[in-house]
């Protein structure tokens, strides 16, 4: 038994050695010139821009009327609390009288009020509608139905509106190159970021925001927006301050070497012999073409009459409400 085992191990070892010795020769025979073989990876699949919460709970700002006929009118545990979340059971005022069946899915929304923003000149841009999640009908009665909270992005309340669910498909995108911070303007429609879904004023990747570009500006789902800030007047947090100490100010020179009264922050003086007035920052900007600072990129998820819901997909730095957007 021991001898046979040793013979088997030895035989396998010899086979392995021969394969290692012969394998390069086989490759050389198949590729006599010795050129390297290029192996091309399969193309990466296109990726969804948004899903889940960002796709079905992004909310929107619209000007058209919203139906207030159907709503949540009760809850299984309403005696114990006011809020309802995933897998809780609620009652809606829709039953056999409205053709409801077990398995039907409905969206739940909550209009929050008119939107007024200092960042737009459009005037009436509509009212904000918060999207809360979805209901699945589990039991149907004559005038009401029992529904399970299938998904929730926020707490449900009695009185929240029940709407037909809107099927949405996320825009797809290929793997992205590095964000071009120096891209030229496209010359297409421009607008502003009005607000964000969560009330944040400094935004980053995957944040949901609302812009004052809509169907009237030929915006479509999937459009990309460049987010930018004009360099001249784009600073959102201005404050008045002295730009530089002038040449008349003392106390900036080195105590050790007494280099003179001139600060290393003082600006240049006009004239070839530096005999004129100082050049200010504002004067240095005069006559230049419009310049801008690109801070990010967004993709349109939903379009209404005068606004669009977007998701921020790439950032060069933090983004503010009030920043400009431009159709690519």
The total of beta strands comes to: 17
Number of helices: 3
| Average pLDDT taken over every residue | 82
- Oligomer kind: single chain
User: Could you spell the SSE succession in H and E letters?
Assistant: HEHEEEEEEEEEEEEHEEEE
Stretches where pLDDT is under 50 for at least 5 consecutive residues are 239-246
Largest sheet: 7 strands, antiparallel
Distance between the termini: 77 Å
Secondary structure: helix percent: 10-25%
Query: What overall form do the CA principal axes indicate?
Result: elongated
- Report the structural category: mainly beta
Radius of gyration of CA atoms, rounded to a whole number: 33 Å
Percentage of residues in strands = 25-35%
């Amino acid at each position: 038994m021991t001898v046979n085992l040793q013979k088997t191990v030895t035989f396998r070892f010899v086979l392995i050695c021969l394969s290692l010795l012969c394998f390069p020769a086989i490759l050389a025979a198949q590729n006599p010139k010795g050129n390297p073989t290029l192996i091309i990876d399969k193309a990466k699949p296109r990726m969804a821009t948004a899903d889940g919460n960002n796709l079905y709970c992004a909310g929107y700002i619209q000007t058209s009327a919203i139906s207030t006929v159907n709503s949540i009118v009760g809850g299984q545990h309403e005696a114990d609390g006011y809020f309802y979340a995933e897998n809780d059971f609620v009652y809606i005022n829709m039953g056999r009288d409205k053709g409801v069946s077990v398995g039907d899915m409905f969206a739940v929304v909550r209009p929050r009020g008119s939107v007024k923003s200092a960042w737009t000149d459009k005037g009436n841009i509509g009212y904000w509608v918060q999207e809360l999640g979805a209901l699945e009908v589990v039991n149907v009665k004559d005038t009401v139905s029992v529904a399970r909270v299938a998904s929730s992005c926020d707490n449900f309340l009695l009185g929240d509106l029940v709407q037909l669910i809107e099927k949405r498909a996320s825009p797809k995108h290929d793997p992205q190159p590095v964000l071009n911070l120096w891209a030229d303007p496209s010359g297409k429609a421009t607008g502003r970021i009005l607000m964000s879904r969560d009330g944040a004023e400094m935004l980053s990747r995957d944040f949901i925001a609302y812009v004052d570009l809509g169907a009237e500006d030929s915006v479509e789902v999937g459009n990309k927006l460049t987010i930018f800030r004009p360099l001249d007047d784009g600073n959102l947090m201005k404050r008045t301050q002295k730009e530089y100490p002038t040449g008349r100010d003392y106390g900036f020179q080195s105590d050790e070497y007494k280099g003179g009264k001139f600060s290393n922050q003082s600006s240049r003086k006009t004239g070839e012999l530096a005999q004129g007035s100082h050049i200010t920052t504002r004067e240095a900007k005069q006559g230049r073409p419009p310049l801008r600072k690109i801070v990010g990129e967004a993709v349109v998820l939903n379009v209404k009459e005068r606004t669009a819901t977007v998701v921020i997909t790439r950032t060069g730095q933090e983004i503010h409400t009030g920043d400009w957007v431009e159709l690519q």
